[in-house]
Amino acid sequence: MAQRSSRKRRKQRQRTTGSRTVTPAVGGEEAAPRKAMARGYARQRAKDDAARAALVPLAPGERPTAVTVGAVVAALAAVANLVALVVGYDSDARRDTMTTLLGVFLLVPMAIGMWRARYWAVLGMQTLLAITVILSSLALMTAADWRATLLAVALIVGSGTLFWFLVKAMARIQMPTRPGAG
Q1: Does the CA dihedral 33-38-43-48 come out positive or negative?
Q2: Which residues are paired to 16 by β-bridges?
Q3: Which is more confident, 48 or 134?
Q4: Each residue's pLDDT tens digit, 112-138
């Protein structure tokens, strides 16, 4: 414990801004970390403001490329699930049929909403992509052969990449007008 307090005192002596030493306020040793934390928050707020200023709002009828790709992926997944259900691929139980139909009924409105660049649809797609990354990572741990490993890695990379690009697209969709222009 003695080493810890001497380290704190040494760090306080080393902390300088310009030519003056930063000393804790009346609150004792707690004031210096609070000031440092406040400076860190201020720096992060400045970075956030700069990132928001760099965003360009969507023009009427505009759709970001990542959202278009997400809409196509959702539509293809819905069609693939429906085709698999119709041809009887792995639907030997009633529960599997209901799960597949539920997936189709979730993916179709999501694809339509993403095509129209709706925030809720992009958020729902990101949720599905995050779940896909998590489940694929778990499947990767139990992969039996190289094909299963390759499939899991492809799902992780593809879903993670689309997730990443949808983040900025969501910010643009949510942004009604340019900050400060109103």
Answers
A1: positive
A2: 21
A3: 134
A4: 999 998 999 999 999 999 999 999 999
